[in-house]
Structures are given as C-alpha cells and as structure tokens.
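FAQ: What does a multi-protein file look like?

Like this. Sequence, then tokens, then the next protein.
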Amino acid sequence: MKTFVIFLSLCVGLLQAAPTLSPIHAIHIDGNAQDLVVHGSSLYVGTSHGKLQVYDLKTWKLTKEITLPKIKDFMGDSIFAAASSIDYRDGRYLLLSDSGNKGYTDLWIHENNVTKKILSASDKKALVKARFIDKNHLLLGYLSDEASLLDLTTKSEAYRVQLSASKFSDFALNALRTQAAFSCESGVISVIDTHTGNVIKMLKGINKDNVYKVDFKNGIVAAAGQDRRAAYYHVATGQGSYFRASFLIYATGLSPSARRVAFAMDENNNITVFDLQTHAKIARLKGQKSTLNSIVFIGEKTLVSGSDDDTVLVWNVP
C-alpha cells in the first residue's frame, strides 16, 4: 500500500510539472538583437547592424526599418553602429548607438522619415540606455550609474543624479513612466521619480552582485542577478524573494499585471516562467540558441525573447 501511495504521488507530481514549450514563431532580424520594446501593436527591435526594425504583432511582418550610418573603428575601418537602446513615442523613434570615439555614444531621433543626431561624441556622454518619458523628454542611464532627464527641445538635462559608485547595468520604467528602477554592479536597485530624479526607494538585501537586467510592472521589480538569484521586490515595502538558478541570469521580464515573471535560468538559455503569487513554475521555454539579453511580455500569456543572434523568438504559455 505504501509503495502504491509513493507511486501515485510521483504520478501526480509529473502531471503537475511545468511543461517544456517550443517557440510558436521565429523572427529573423538583420543583425543580433540588442534591445526589444513592445508598444501598441508593434515590436521594436534594435540590432547590431545599426537598425531599428518594427514588426507587426499579429502578422510578425516587418513594417518599418531605420538604418544608422556606419562609424569608423580605431583602425579606421567602417563598421556598424549597433542600435543598443531603442524606443518609440508619439511618432518619434529613439536610437542610441556607439559613436566609435572613446566609448561615447550617439543619440538619434527619427521622425517624419528623417533621422537627426541629438547627441554626438563631442557631447562626451557615455550612455548605456535611453527611453522616452514623454515625446520631448528622455530618461538616460550613464555607464557611471547616473540618471538624467534630457529635454529634446533644449538639449539640456533637467537633472543628473549619481545613484551609486558602481557601474550601471540597466533600468526599467513603470507603465506610467513616472518611476524607474536602476540596477548596477552592487546588486542594489534604486527606484527614482523620473521627473525629479529623487530616489524613492532602495531595493536591497536579496541580490548580492551585479543585476544585469530589471523589469518594472505594477509595483513589482524583477531582477536578473549574476549571483544566480532570480529576484523580485515589492517597491512599496522593499521586501521580496527569489528563485535559485543554476547559472548567471542575464534577462528577465514581467507580465503587465506582474502576476507572471520570466527569467533565463540556466546555461542552455532556457527561460522559466513563474507565478509570483504561488511561486509555481508555469512553463519552461526551450529553443533559444544564444545568450539571452531581452525578455518582453506582450500580454499575460505571450512573450518575446532576444539574444546574441539574429533570431527573436515568440512564445505562448498556459
């Protein structure tokens, strides 16, 4: 009888195990994926070949492409200016790229089929990430872990604040773009007011090392840690928890409600989706070939992932 009970328990466990899923679609882009953004009915992809490519979320067809001019490397050779950070707002497209000059960056705005350089190497800004706050203002993340708000009309910064003495890793905006979570090498996450630069909350105590990527939805911050901790924090309380991974965690994404979270959890670039309320594993997503750098939910049950290759994958989860 005891053996039967154990056998029955194992069967139930297997039936309840999270399914391993394959992607439902693959988008072949021009270059390696550098950044992914979902806005409205479109997916925006920044590539290593200096392109911002826009895809329709229903047909997955390319609907628009913006190409940056090539730059010169230190040998004088012509190379692609990778579009490392991209965004879209009210008819304006944002592209951040390497200038080819001492680590400084170029910042571009594309509008009405015209691409205009807003910042260049002469401005001496070592930027890593940029996002629209509104049509005329950009939130900037400096390599030095400084945050600033750039006015596109005057090209001046409303503020520039030092968040830590560590190197910047990533930032993510909440849905209203009123707050942003900044991560760095120390493992501490700074949540700031995007309009003033004031620090609202310091999230710490779970991640002990570099937090490569963050996402911020519905009062929850997800953190992908070098310490193999797939962490999440409640901004209101500063409290949180984590899932233990078997490898460095390079990417994370939250569903719009923040009920679900996805992390790159192992060295094979598989993605695990968890339910944050129950801590149950919902699914394991298998098929990514290269190191993950972006995970973005389209809805509660669909997500896209980008990695260091020319394929963006689309997944449906139960």
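And here is the next protein:
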Amino acid sequence: MTIKQSARIILFILISTVLAYTGCRKDELNTDPGFRLGFSSDTILFDTVFTTIGSITRQLVVRNTGSSKINISKVALARGTASPFRLNIDGTATELYRDLEIGPKDSAYIFVKVTIDPNKANNPLVESDSITFEINGNMQDVKLVAWGQDAYFHHNVILTGDVILPVDKPHVIYGTLTADKNCKLTILPGTKLYFHKGSSFEIRSGASLNVTGTLELPVIFTSDRLDDDYLTIPGLWDGIWLENGSKNISFTYAEITNAIVGIQADSSGYAGGEPLRLHNCLINNMKNYGIRATKANIVSTNCQVTNCGGNAVSIEQGGNYDFRNCTLANYFNGKGYAALSISNYSLDSSYKQIPGELTGAYFGNCILTGSMANEIDFYELPGTTFNFQFDQCLASWDKETKYEANFINCLINKEAKFKDPYLNNFQLDTLSFAINAASIDIINSTIPDIKFDRKGISRLNPGPPDLGAYERVEKK
C-alpha cells in the first residue's frame, strides 16, 4: 500500500468519525434542567371585538435554541377542559399533548384557538389561561388572553383631542388607558370601566377629565374580575394617576374600587386652573391609598373614602385641601395606617425630605375614624407652612397639645357607629354620635350644594344634619 493510499484511508476514517460523532450529537437528547425554550411571544392576545360567536386562531412558535434535540414532556392548557382555548399540535386538537420533540436549532408551531360567545352576560369580561411547557423537570408558560364579552376594549390606548367615551357598552382596559397632552376627556353617566390586573387610567400633563356620573347612573372604575370571589379583593388593578400638570379634573358620582391606589394626584389643580373636584364619590377597598395627594389642590364634598391598606387620604408635600361632609374611615383588615395623614413634606428615593407649603387643609362636618384609637397622623417639617383646621368633625385622635387649637367644636374619640363598615356599609347606626352633630352654616356655605347627602337624602328636612357623607334615615 502506497503512502498516498494510506493517507486517503486515514482521511476517510477521520471524516467518518466526525460525521458519526456529529450525527450522535444531533440525536443526543438535551437533559439540562436549566435549559429554556424560546417563544415568539410571552402573551397571545385575542383582541378582536366579537359581535357574534367568536372563533379565532393565533400562532405560537416554540424554539429549540440548543444544539441537541429536546423533548417537551408535556404541553398543556392550565385550565384543562374548562378552558375556552384549544391547542393544535402536529395536527392534533387537544388541551394536553405529550412528548413534543424539536430538533436542534429548530422550531415547532402551536396553533391556539378560542371560541367565545361574547353576548353571554355571565361570561367574564376577559378570559385568560396559559400554555404550560414541562421540559427536563422545569416549567415555562405563555399567557393567553381573550375578550369574553361584547365591549369596547382598550389595549394600551392613547386618547387625543376631544373624546367622549361611548356608554352603550362597558369598557375593558388591558394595559393603560391614557388621556394624552391636551386631550379633553368626558365620561358620561352610567359608563363602566373595567381594568385588568396591572392596568391603569392615566391623565397626562395638559390633559383634562370630566367624569359626570349621577345618583342613578354612577361612573364605575373597578376590576374586570366580576365573579363573587373577587368583589372584595383589593389591588386587582393599578388605579387612576393624575400626572403633574393635568388640569380641570372633576369626578361626580364616581365609584372607584379594588385598586392599588384609588387616585394618585400629583400637583393636580395646584399650579393653576380649577382644583381637583370630587363630589358624591365613593373610593373603597384599596390595597394602598384611597387618595394620595402630593402638593395638590382638592375640593371634596359628600365623598366616602374608606378601607385601605394605607391611608384613606394621604396629603404629602403640602398643597391646599377642602373636605366637607366626607366620611374618611379605615377598617381595612390588618391595616396599620391612619385614615388620614397630613404632611408638609415628602420623601425622595433616598428618604430626603422635600418640603412643600401646606397653605390649607380644611375638614368641615367630616367623620375621621377607623379600627385604631388614632386615625389622624401629622408630619410637620418645622419652618415650612403647616396650616390645617378641623371644624365640627368627629375624629378618632390621640390629642397632641400643640394641635388642639386646630380642632373647633369637634367630637374627639366618640364612636361613629356605622352599620357595617367591614362590608362597606357606612350608613350611621342608631346610637352614632355623628347624628344631628353637623353645622348647618358649613352646609349652607358650601359649593357645590351639599344640602342632600351622597344618596340624595335631604340634610335639612327634617334636620338637624348629620356628620359625614350619609344622613341617618329613621325607619317609620
């Protein structure tokens, strides 16, 4: 055998060995418990507005980013057969598929179908599920979201110009509904806005908002989880944010419930324009604050702000405030915060105090109480204006000598005795000290008119009037 022939044989053996090794590598199964699948999207959103029975298909690409074959031991819908979604994998329609193999640097296609009758009133507003993937002992998932009822759906929508939200169907917000700069937004009586988890309503600098609910047709801001198990759970959506520079904001007969923060008011109405006006509103069951006001200008009349994990009302970095015939009460389960906090400074991220003049904080004919002995906290930065007054109020308060002169004709540490504050019933019970304790002069001097309570009951006939947002009605 010649040298040239020997070299050819050796080269052939080497090439065969490499090819055999490469073939083994391709056939070798990836068992790394830290391996992660790649997906074309982390959420599949079915955002079509249905007017008849909806049946829509979307595509998900599952990628094997490794250099070895993988075996996905289970692909499943988390809700199983109860899910309105269905999967089609390798020609099989199913809610559960086992042993899906994908070659190295290759992909598999999963088709996702949803079928919903959006005209069924008992459907959830938003149907959700997830596709779960089990590989090498680990789990990954892709979220599935579809509209469940016929409604207006807003997925990260930015509103511009003059806008009036239609009232004929509910509005479902997924992400953020934003009134952009110079937007003039009007929300009509009876409008219902339902927010998905993590969603919010934001009014940008320069934008204005007019919420025009009525006693019979309030405007509703709440979570899209309408099933009974979620009706009393706080923190189901983010809340309403009034950005610094937003202007001419008013809420009349608005009901804001079950968010993280009811209204975050950053300097609203303070640097010009009308104050933020809240009239006959209900803000209840927040994970953190009912109203968090930073250097704002707020006029609040006939409002109930109650049951929050933080303060029902938190005034920070000063501003100017006027609350009349309001019920500010905190019976939140496990809470450790007072119903009302008043401060002439705020704290930045490094806990540095940022001063702000409290030019005025007036509370007239109000109830300020809760489950703790002290329901009013004061945080005063010396040398910065700190003006406030409680006039003819019922207040649960640990008396501080230096502030006692700021309480005029008040009932200190007397029981409000609500019917059932833990179940959001803040009507006055028979033995409440708030009955007949309000000042008629305060009522007569207030704009807008508060001669009728939040439920439309006359305060002056037969009179005398009661403290807080609700007039006691004696059974005949």
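Q: Is there any per-entry metadata?
A: Some entries carry free-text notes. For the entry above: The longest helix spans residues 3-27.
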